[in-house]
Amino acid sequence: MASMPGIFNLSIDTAVEEARRARELGIDAVLLFGIPPTKDPRGSSGWQADGVVPKAIRAIKEAIPELVVIADVCLCEYTDHGHCGVLVDGDVDNDETVPLLVRAALAYADAGADVVAPSDMMDGRVAAIRAGLDEAGHHQVSILSYAVKYASAFYGPFREAAQSAPKEGDRRGYQMDPANAREALRMARRDLAEGADWILVKPALAYLDVVRAVREEVDVPVVAYNVSGEYAMLKAAAANGWIDGERAMLEALTSMKRAGADRIVTYHALEAAALLAEG
Q1: What is the rounded (10 degree) CA torsion for 54, 57, 60, 62?
Q2: What is each CA distance from 22 to 18, 33, 88, 101, in whole angstroms?
Q3: Is position 167 annotated as part of the catalytic site?
Q4: Among 97, 95, 65, 69, which residue's Cα sits nearest to residue 81?
Q5: Domain 12-172+179-278 adopts which CATH fold?
Q6: Closest to 64 measured CA to CA, from 24, 107, 34, 33
Q7: Residue from 39, 55, 61, 149 carrying the catalytic annotation
């Protein structure tokens, strides 16, 4: 992708090879997103047992069983309108969407996912997914909740890659106001009460204060998501010779750890791991 140099949409076989490379570099988890062959208003490809993500989960777990596989749970990549849920009269309907997210989470758990990661920001989806997983016997499958996900301008390159930009409107109706830090704590507490095992803050660099506040609020692992726009900015500046790209990358990732993140989701993962392995 022009906006994300070094990042590609992968077939399942190449995804397995990338996952194997990640494991060899000391990375112990991968987060999967899928682009289906067809899309519809309800995002039904998102919960098909033979869909692209379940197939990838099975292939990766068979090839590298010790690697933790996390599956993103959202409908935006699967709906033909690009929103994270079902549209009713032009608006995302929370209650129509939540059961579909449960179906997607179950499809991924059935395929062997270790963790499901709801990123849709619907109310009540963590409790519904936890209940659905437990009823299906997937007690061991953890929930990584995107509890703190802001309506950010930094998602643009990912939306291009995942073909998931809304065709009309935006996601500010269900994602968080960037000016609101207090809501982050309320959302984190709510999702913990509903059964979340990990709490994720997204984006990372512009929200390090929020990462720190959430870290001080909860006693479960906190994850910072170093998003596509943050990656693109560093890569563009480095390509123009304006910064030392490798140093800037490691400095940015260090800032997330310093803010309190236990884990980091980043497009820099392979590059950073290789540099750290070199010492």
Answers
A1: -80
A2: 6, 16, 41, 28
A3: no
A4: 97
A5: TIM Barrel (3.20.20)
A6: 24
A7: 149
How does 221-250 read in b/e, with b if 16+ C-beta sit within 10 Å?
ebbbbbbbbbbbbbbeebeeeebebeebbb
The helix/strand/coil state of 249 is helix
Closest Cα partner for 84 from 175, 176, 7, 15? 175
pLDDT tens digit string along 235-271?
999 999 999 999 999 999 999 999 999 999 999 999 9
Q: Which of 174, 168, 116 is nearest to 140 (CA)?
A: 116
46: its two tokens: 């998102």
Per-residue model confidence (pLDDT) at position 83:
82
Catalytic residue among 39, 55, 61, 202: 202
Q: Is 218 helix (H, G, I), strand (E, B) or coil?
A: coil
For residues 76-99, average pLDDT: 88
Catalytic annotation present for 202: yes
